[in-house]
Write a structure and sequence with these properties.
Elements lengths: L2 H26 L3 H18 L18 H20 L11 H13 L6 H11 L6 H6 L3 H18 L2 H13 L1 H7 L7 H19 L2 H14 L10 H14 L3 H4 L1 H24 L8 H4 L13 H13 L10 H4 L10 H16 L4 H18 L14 H23 L4 H25 L8 H13 L3 E6 L8 H4 L7 E4 L2 H6 L8 E6 L7 H8 L4 E6 H4 L10 E8 L1 H7 L2 E5 L6 E5 L13 E11 L3 E7 L5 E5 L2 E3 L4 E4 L2 E11 L8 E9 L2 E9 L5 E2 L6 E6 L10 E5 L3 E2 L8 E10 L3 E8 L3 E6 L3 E5 L5 H8 L4 E2 L3 E3 L2 E10 L4 E7 L5 E2 L5 E3 L4
Helix pairs in contact: 1-2, 1-18, 1-20, 2-18, 3-7, 3-8, 4-5, 7-8, 7-9, 7-10, 8-20, 8-21, 10-11, 11-14, 12-19, 16-19, 18-20, 19-20
Length: 846
């Protein structure tokens, strides 16, 4: 209790803050080595200045009684701030619903409503839907009340561990921290991990301090509840068990003396933990559905490092730097811009000092437990190929705030020793304002004064517009963005009339389901370039509707991503005008009758005998074997893909539209033609199922023959039979319905004039374009020996541009690891444009 020493300590503390501040600036400038060097210098001074000698149940030297009424008033202010941050502009920030939110919502409501950790979320969501009708807001109600409760829980935890001023400081940070606020508005079960952890730590500390059996029971109970959040929380029990083991080994009779307490702890844990354990042994995919994809041990080809142990070390570095230098690359995980640190500048200074200090004093039980909890919850990101992940590491949030509390508490203790206890009522509020004002201001700016793109607002508002159109419209979303299924798109309409895919040809297949409905094709920005050509070639009378931020968010003008959706609205009358075949009758010279079905008309019986030919397109629903059967009594000639088909023979056809021609004659009044299709789908190399369909208006159309023929293979070469083929009506080529690594698109390229054609692509893999089996252009590098062997004896000449005459040229496009390919050309040095859809024609060969 030497005033001079106390004053020197306070000066040294300001030196520590200054050095740490300079270190954090180096992090901002991307100078990691200098930043870490300065942080360790700051830590050494701090550890020298504030050594720990107290008993292990005491963390603070600042134990002045805070005025109760003032404390209640401040807590209410903090709670109001927290509620404001979690509810303000909830309908527009973020504008959309993220895939994890919407996907979880579907699981809670339908697939897993009574399975494991989903039941709690299901009940909360159903309760919210009693008051909130907008699914987008009902989803977010899963997090908002839970997060608000956690504000009070954290306050009492920090107040119990430290003191009231430190609790005020840390809880205010938690109330406004962008990372915390994001998950407090994020309709996902991950919020339950830090919330349950708060109560688990509170009751654990109470159990250690009071040795009360009920406290041990509630500590176990709330620990089990953490298992109902993100799956990283499974590891949360490890620090507890390790502590019990170490104490039992190091302290004589510890296990014997605490046997009843430990029994109460594990009984409490079993109440919520048992259902998770029970369901895990039924199916580990319930909880670890993507572990085989994102784990460093899965040896995924997309992993940043092929060496598992190097990957773990690199990920550990990324996760530790997530709070000070470079955060998650995905906005949906942190609520910030890509790679933005998870916590703000000033809070990160407190965290880094407290983190190193806690490691140094980890022999004390709470420091040991917090460090172990931190790394156990960071493990979900450390052992992932997608590190750093602010979602998988959400369990580190509470240890991070504990580290912040340690540093602030030491600062308060130092001020008390220098200025005394009586002046505390004056300097404590001043210190709180000095530190908290910039933190609140910065986090408010990060969340409410800028626009965070993404968050699947495109997909969400596409769903909102689908609902607005109503069930008089079949809606198909065409995009290669997001995840398969596009959950945010489906939350507003869950009927069969809403679908999405990265293949426009899949949407065209859905025309066969239309009876009296209209059809809306939705395009996101990755497919906008196709819309004008698609409209011109297929549905010229359709209208284009643009849905943008101003359409649904008039409060947020001139910000955001602009357009959400360009919708091509096709009327039912236009669809019907495209249905049926073109008929030519022998008694009607040079006259074509449209929209006909291949049946004899009674009104033409007076013209018997006559010959009729029907021509157009037949929509084949899947890749498989087909047999055309006439239940009538007349002879006929059938042509598919310009080839004559023998009667009752099976033919292999690709999914999509195929040219069809039927010629027959009616010679007697009782002559009948009744054509039907017997179909068997080919999945992989196995035929499955059998269906029987009459040739009707829903599968017969009059469309131009455009696009290419897609072939999809297993492996890395094209020298085997494809496992899937389809006729594609688009110029955005994907790796097909089976997501093949090896693909080929074949057909003909129609060139409008003689000249030099500079053909290029936008793609993410290896592409080779071969013209007329003579010349080729390639982009990317060959990734396999099989590919090199396949092209070895083709005698192809490599070129950078193609010299082509006007007319039709054979084109073959080979792709390896290509998931999204767009073709462009520049003719005779004219500006580059995407190749029009009707400049392609499929070859139909299998």
């Amino acid at each position: 209790n030497n005033k001079i020493i106390d004053f020197i300590k306070l000066i040294l503390l300001f030196v520590v803050f200054f050095i740490a501040y300079k270190g954090q600036q180096f992090f901002v400038r991307n100078n990691i080595n200098e930043a870490i060097k300065l942080y360790f210098i700051a830590f050494l001074i701090f550890a020298f200045t504030f050594p720990i000698y107290k008993k292990e149940t005491e963390l603070t030297e600042y134990n002045i009684k805070f005025p109760f009424k003032l404390e209640i008033f401040i807590v209410l202010i903090i709670l109001i701030i927290g509620i404001f941050f979690r509810t303000y502009e909830i309908d527009i920030r973020p504008a959309g619903v993220e895939n994890d939110e919407a996907g979880g919502w579907f699981l809670y409501k339908y697939e897993r409503r009574n399975v494991g950790h989903s039941t709690l979320f299901f009940n909360i969501s159903k309760f919210a839907e009693l008051f909130v009708k907008d699914p987008r807001l009902a989803i977010k109600m899963l997090a908002i009340p839970t997060s608000i409760i956690s504000i009070l829980g954290l306050y009492f935890l920090i107040r119990t561990l430290f003191n009231s001023p430190t609790a005020i400081f840390v809880t205010t940070i938690y109330s406004v921290l962008r990372w915390s606020v994001h998950y407090g508005r994020f309709g996902h079960g991950s919020i339950l991990t830090p919330v349950a952890m708060i109560f688990a730590l509170y009751f654990l500390y109470k159990a250690f301090k009071t040795k009360n059996k009920y406290m041990w029971f509630f500590a176990g109970l709330t620990l089990g509840l953490t298992w109902h959040g993100v799956m990283t929380a499974f590891l949360l029990i490890i620090p507890y068990i390790l502590y019990f083991i170490f104490k039992s080994l190091s302290q004589k009779n510890y296990f014997k003396e605490h046997f009843v307490s430990l029994l109460a702890f594990f009984l409490g844990f079993w109440i919520y933990g048992s259902m998770i354990i029970h369901n895990y042994f039924i199916s580990d995919r319930i909880y670890f559905a993507r572990a085989h994809e994102v784990s460093v041990f899965s040896k995924d080809p997309n992993a940043p490092s092929k060496n598992v142990w190097k990957g773990i070390m690199d990920n550990t570095k990324r996760v530790l730097l997530m709070f000070n230098k470079e955060g998650d690359s995905r906005q949906r995980n942190s609520g910030g811009q890509p790679y933005e640190p998870t916590i703000d500048f000033l809070t990160s200074i407190f965290f880094a000092l407290g983190f190193i200090y806690s490691i140094y004093y980890s022999k004390y039980y709470l420091f040991f437990i917090m460090i172990m909890i931190f790394f156990s919850q960071a493990a979900g990101s450390i052992f992932s190929i997608e590190a750093p992940s602010a979602m998988r590491a959400i369990g580190t949030m509470i240890p991070v705030l504990f580290f912040v509390a340690i540093i602030f508490d030491k600062f308060l203790s130092s001020l008390r020793k220098v200025f005394g206890e009586k002046l505390g009522i004056l300097y404590v509020p001043v210190i709180l304002v000095i530190f908290l004002f910039p933190i609140i201001k910065e986090n408010y700016r990060q969340y409410f004064q800028r626009w965070i793109g993404g968050m699947d607002e495109l997909s969400t508002f596409a769903g909102m517009y689908a609902k607005e159109l109503g069930k008089d419209y079949y809606v198909f979303l065409f995009t290669g963005l997001y995840y398969p299924g596009h959950p945010p798109f489906r939350i507003y309409r869950q009927d069969y009339k809403v679908n999405s895919a990265g293949r426009l040809s899949y949407g065209m297949q859905k025309l066969s389901t239309i009876t009296d409905e209209n059809f809306a094709f939705f395009f996101h920005y990755d497919t906008w370039h196709m819309l004008p050509d698609f409209q011109r070639v297929y549905f010229p009378q359709a209208q284009v509707k643009i849905i943008d931020h101003k359409y649904y968010n008039p409060k947020l003008k001139d910000i955001g991503m602009g357009e959400f959706v360009r919708a091509l609205l096709v009327s039912n009358s236009e669809i019907k005008s495209k249905r049926g075949l073109n008929a030519t009758y022998s008694f009607l010279k040079n006259q074509i009758i449209k929209n006909e079905l291949p049946v004899f008309k009674k009104e033409f019986d007076s013209k018997i005998p006559y010959t009729v030919t029907w021509e157009g397109d037949i929509l084949i629903p899947f890749y498989g074997r087909f047999r055309f059967i006439n239940k009538g009594n007349v002879d006929y000639d059938l042509y598919i893909d310009y080839k004559k088909i023998s009667k009752d023979s099976e033919i292999l056809l690709a999914e999509g539209f195929h040219p069809v021609k039927i010629t027959t004659s009616k010679k007697k009044i009782d002559d009948v033609i009744d054509l039907n299709i017997e179909a068997m789908e080919l999945k992989g190399y196995t035929m499955q199922g059998k269906s029987f369909t009459k040739l009707n208006e829903k599968i017969l159309y009059d469309f131009p023959n455009t696009g290419l023929h897609g072939y999809y293979y297993l492996g890395n070469s094209w020298d085997k039979d494809p496992i899937q083929t389809e006729v594609i009506n688009e110029t955005v080529f994907t790796n097909g319905p089976l997501y093949s690594d090896c693909v080929k698109w074949s057909g003909y390229l129609k060139t409008p004039e003689d000249g030099i054609y500079n053909i290029s692509t936008h793609n993410n893999g290896y592409v080779r374009i071969v013209i007329d089996n003579k010349y080729f252009w390639e982009q990317g590098s060959v990734l396999s020996k099989e590919t090199e062997e396949f092209f070895k004896d083709k005698n192809l000449q490599k070129v950078y541009t193609f010299n082509l005459r006007k007319g039709k040229h054979q084109i073959d496009i080979y792709g390896l690891n290509v998931t999204n390919l767009i073709l462009y050309w520049s003719i005779n040095n004219k500006p580059q444009v995407s190749i029009p859809i009707d400049c392609f024609e499929p070859d139909y060969k299998i």
